[in-house]
Amino acid sequence: MLASPLMQRALVVAVLVGIAAPVMGTYLVQRRLALLGDGLGHMALTGVAVGWLVGNAANLTPHDALAVPGAVVAAVIGSVIIEVVRAKGRTSGDVALALLFYGGIAGGVVLIGLAGGTTANLTGYLFGSISTVTTLDLWLTVVLAVVILGVGLGLRPALFSLSHDEEFARASGLPVRLLNITVAVMAALTVSVAMRVVGVLLVSAVMIVPVATAQLLTRSFRMTMALAMVIGVAVSVVGLSLTYTYPLSPGATIVILAIATYAVVSVVRPLLPRARRGGDPHPDVEDDVELEVAR
């Protein structure tokens, strides 16, 4: 399996998605925006069709050479729009998400028709096509994953404060509006990265389900993020390996593995010994006072 260049590229992309997606998923779960990835995924589908339309007009080969870059641009624009709408407060967050759902998928279908294609050309983007990842897709995924991890891990203290209590973050002097847009844009980039692996219809699963599983086993924000990254990589690599042997859809297999892991952990967790109480109640916060231990 590892001797195939196609599987080498697919495995690298699967590992990067497994690491990067749960990082931003942790912030979305904490902020109760678990469905944001779905809305951005539908918006990315319009970007795929726009990229296809531009590639066709420019006579590029293949015609979908600009599909992924188009998805990145569309998802980022959609993330900024939904954050501005949410901040203005004139439309509720779920209504804004619904508009992205309907408008994104309808725009994709209409534009792919104008580009001379059919809805069948969108199937690989709807359900994922990791086995057809090109070298350009690989490098684009590497760059986006580095950006997502750099922002998601580098700004973790500020983003944690924002996700936990937005009013506290504002009172602390943090640039709340800028951080909100940053989270939305990073979520859009994560959707664009994961789109090739599981498709826009299942993209939220690799962002949210590993985090939900990790929350069953951990008590701190930092440990939840770390364990979610481990689970994300494990289900992505195992799912991809299974599809090399059996004729299964890679994206759907990865998502089913993630959900099965959540179900098993949910059943087993009550049987595990509970963590001893009395430890540090805020393990993510550095101690400002150190007490001398009595000898």
UniProtKB/TrEMBL annotation:
The keyword Protein transport appears for this protein: no
Membrane disposition? Multi-pass membrane protein
* Entries under InterPro entries matching the protein: ABC_BtuC-like, ABC_TroCD
What Pfam families does this protein's entry cite? Answer: ABC-3 (PF00950)
Q: Is-annotated flag, keyword Transport?
A: yes
Q: Which domain of life is it from?
A: Bacteria
Subcellular location(s): the record lists: Cell membrane; Membrane
Q: Which CDD domains match?
A: TM_ABC_iron-siderophores_like
Q: Which UniProt keywords apply?
A: Membrane, Transmembrane, Transmembrane helix, Transport
Instruction: Please list every transmembrane segment annotated in the UniProt record, as residue ranges.
Output: 6-28, 35-54, 66-85, 97-118, 138-162, 174-194, 200-218, 225-246, 252-272
Q: Which family does it belong to?
A: Belongs to the ABC-3 integral membrane protein family.
**Protein name (database record):** Metal ABC transporter permease
Taxonomy-wise, where does this protein's organism fall, top ranks first?
Answer: Bacteria, Bacillati, Actinomycetota, Actinomycetes, Micrococcales
